[in-house]
Design brief:
By secondary structure, the protein is mostly helical. It contains 13 helices and two strands. The termini are far apart.
């Protein structure tokens, strides 16, 4: 291994374990990202060779393991089995990140195309690789832009089919899940206010505006402008 400081050695080892890459590839990605681990993951997984190295037959076998017997879809029972295989709680936010990668249209459902295309993009074609990618997907929540993308994706993913708005109980559950990750101090107060005063479905505009509010207004509301946009 190259002569590196302890911090760089730890990142190099972590990168190699998660991606299964060689030391040479890991070093190149980390140096290109100026030793930012999340940035290095992005560089690695955006390369065409990751998708090219997935085995289509293995992907088909994975899909068959979880698909519903009566449809060409993975439904609740299949997702529960997948979570058991991955040793992940079905309520874990990483399942939302996975759904975002798969561009899933509906919560608790994966079409064959969504499942296989998403795994190809992640360089996954075995359960072992799937488990290895969990830490990477979790780390993506630390990226401000990716968190915003995942947050915005969650609205359409979580709402009922055919509905324009998100049911209040579902919206509250999603906010608690997302802001547990980003530690917005006012999330519980916000949810309690909605239950007491609002008590109706949440529009996409409200959903989007809350993230901006959480990012720009401090927990004491000292910089909140009631007359502003």
């Amino acid at each position: 291994m190259h002569k590196l400081g302890r911090g760089h050695r730890d990142k190099l080892q972590q990168f190699m374990v998660i991606t299964g890459s060689s030391e040479k590839v890991a070093l190149q990605a980390l140096k290109t990202s100026d030793w930012n681990l999340e940035g290095a993951f992005d560089i690695f997984y955006s390369q065409p060779h990751v998708r090219a190295h997935t085995d289509t037959k293995r992907l088909e076998e994975l899909f068959s393991r979880y698909r519903d017997l009566n449809t060409d879809m993975i439904l609740v029972d299949g997702i529960t089995l997948l979570c058991n295989d991955l040793q992940v709680d079905p309520q874990d936010i990483v399942m939302l990140v996975l759904s975002w990668h798969m561009k899933a249209v509906t919560m608790c459902e994966f079409s064959k195309q969504e499942f296989i295309s998403g795994l190809q993009a992640l360089g996954i074609d075995t359960l072992e690789r799937f488990r290895e990618r969990i830490q990477y997907m979790r780390s993506e929540l630390n990226d401000e832009q990716k968190f915003r993308d995942i947050y915005n994706f969650a609205f359409g993913w979580a709402k009922e089919k055919g509905q324009k708005s998100l049911a209040l109980d579902t919206a509250i559950g999603m906010w608690q899940l997302l802001f547990a990750e980003k530690q917005w101090a006012l999330v519980d107060d916000w949810c309690q206010f909605l239950q007491a005063r609002h008590n109706k479905a949440i529009s996409r505009d409200t959903w989007s505006q809350l993230l901006e509010f959480a990012r720009s207004v401090d927990p004491e509301l000292s910089n909140y402008d009631a007359e502003g946009s």
